[in-house]
Amino acid sequence: MPGYGFAEAPKDLVKRWRFLVNDFLRGRAVLRRAFVLVDSRHGLKPVDLEIMDMLDSAAVNYQLVLTKADKIKPTELAVVLEQTTAESAKHAAAHPQLIATSSETGSGITELRAAILEAATS
Length: 122
What we know:
- By secondary structure, the protein is of the alpha/beta class.
- The protein has one domain: P-loop containing nucleotide triphosphate hydrolases (Rossmann fold).
- The chain is 45% helix and 11% strand.
- The protein has helices spanning 11-25, 46-57, 74-88, 109-121, and strands at residues 34-39, 62-67, 99-100.
- A 3-stranded parallel β-sheet has the order 1-2-3, with helices on both faces.
- The protein starts with 10 loop residues before the first helix and ends with a helix.
C-alpha cells in the first residue's frame, strides 16, 4: 500500500479500503512479516500508527523500515530511530529491530534483504 492513499480519498472509500486490507491480512498464515516503510525525514505519522494498529489487530508481524536515511543528518536520524523504536515497543506485532535504509547510498539494504530472507525462511 505505497503511500497508503488515505489522505486524498473520501472517508467512505478509506473505510472500504480498511475492511479490504483487514480481510486480506486476517488468517493469512503464509504471510510471515509485513514491512512498513517510514520516511525518516518525517518519522511516524498518524497514518503509520493506524497501519501499525491495523497490523497489531490482525496479528500480523511487521517490521519498520526507515527510508531516505541519507536525506537527514546523522544526529536527526538517531533521534528518529530512538523515537520510532520507543513507539514500536508499544506494539505487540512489531518486530524489535528497525532498519534504516537509503536507496541512493545503499546503506541498510543488505540488512533489509537479510530481514526479508529471515522472514521468508523462518
